Amino acid sequence: MTAATIAPTRLRIGLAALAVSAFSAFGTPALARGPDGIADVAEKVIDAVVNISTSQTVEAKGGGSSTMPQLPPGSPFEEFFDDFFKNRRGPGGSKGGERGDNPPRKTNSLGSGFIIDTTGVVVTNNHVIADADEINVILNDGTKIRADLVGVDKKTDLAVLKFKPPKPLVAVKFGDSDKLRLGDWVIAIGNPFSLGGTVTAGIVSAKNRDISSGPYDSYIQTDASINRGNSGGPLFNLDGDVIGVNTLIISPSGGSIGIGFAVPSKTVVAVVDQLRQFGELRRGWLGVRIQSVTDEIAESLNIKPARGALVAGVDDKGPAKPAGIEPGDVVVKFDGKDVKDPKDLSRVVADTAVGKEVDVVIIRKGQEETKKVTLGRLQDPDKVQAAVKTDEPAPEKPVTQKALGLDLAALSKDLRTRYKIKDSVKGVVVTNVDANSDAAEKRLSAGDVIVEVAQEAVSSGADIQKRVDQLKKDGKKSVLLLVSNADGELRFVALSVQ
Question: pTM for the whole thing?
Fold first, then answer.
């Protein structure tokens, strides 16, 4: 080692020693140690945290007389036994997995949950108990009790269980997740890697986090260690109140890297109440399809600043239709709550009681209006089977006109057949899109139908060009198109006219 590299090392050692002496003189700051109440909270609530054990019968994929032990996901021995049984030769010299005569077998998994009622009511994640043949609750002292499923909500990944208490129980109560602040200390307790009641602590890293895992994403993000097996466990504040249900992590390795997510208690309470009362979720339904209000769309609709949820379509049988809500309206307030984006509207509608009459504030042509809507009940849509494509001879090329980087043609019988466009769809069909145009960037494609331009109906390419020319004269930077797909589903698209 040269002197050039030694000198900086000595300097760092000297600075470290100085830092240590400084801390010795003045004492370690409280924030470096974390809050003092963690042990008290853990002692108070840990008996309310349970392990969830499930078993499921699955078809065996291979043969061999030996069956691999069923280990909890993430167990330290999982990889060892997996390799051992895959490579072990069964009777007669055949390798396990080659005989194909294994009977169905049971698999086991473990997760977490917590008791919210001393009568034996437990909250956990839906994915912890999904498809289970048998569910057992394991108390903190090791007592194992068979549990029944009360109900699940797949959209928020929550489930409620019920078991008969063998002795008096400890229950925890929900806190108000809306009162959390960034940097607040939180405590996670659960069953990571099958290790039983494990306590970890961290802070609230973010609120209202949308990770596109479901329609009602609004997660609490925390750096408290959450691992496989923690799913369904509680996230506590320093008062010992449950402010979230630990649900998932982001990790390339499968272990905690400090990015965990919990369903906020505000959501959990509403879901759990309905599952206990009805055994299912009864969400409010407005009967509209919505999309984001981009800066371009906001400019086209004279909305400043860009905000709200743009109504792209209205269900003919939905509550919004008789209330007078129309495509092109922008919802900015629902039942007294501000709507900043489509996710806000989805959440607040879902949380509102079925049958309640609410005020919906919209912006239409730059002016605010209030509509009264009586909410319906959201039903899970049936799965739509994809249309089977058939090879048909292409008809003669239609007469087209170019505008906005699009080749446009009047709808004809041949074009409806070619693009499988429903008879109910009216407008001007797109037959080609310039790959370098704004239209291509906004994902318009051949077969789309332009229904309106700047909120006026069109029936020909000439109609569209006339509207675009007028907007240019008026100094507009963009034009708002109402576009339909072949099935009649509408969306708004703003394209540059420059």
Answer: 0.65
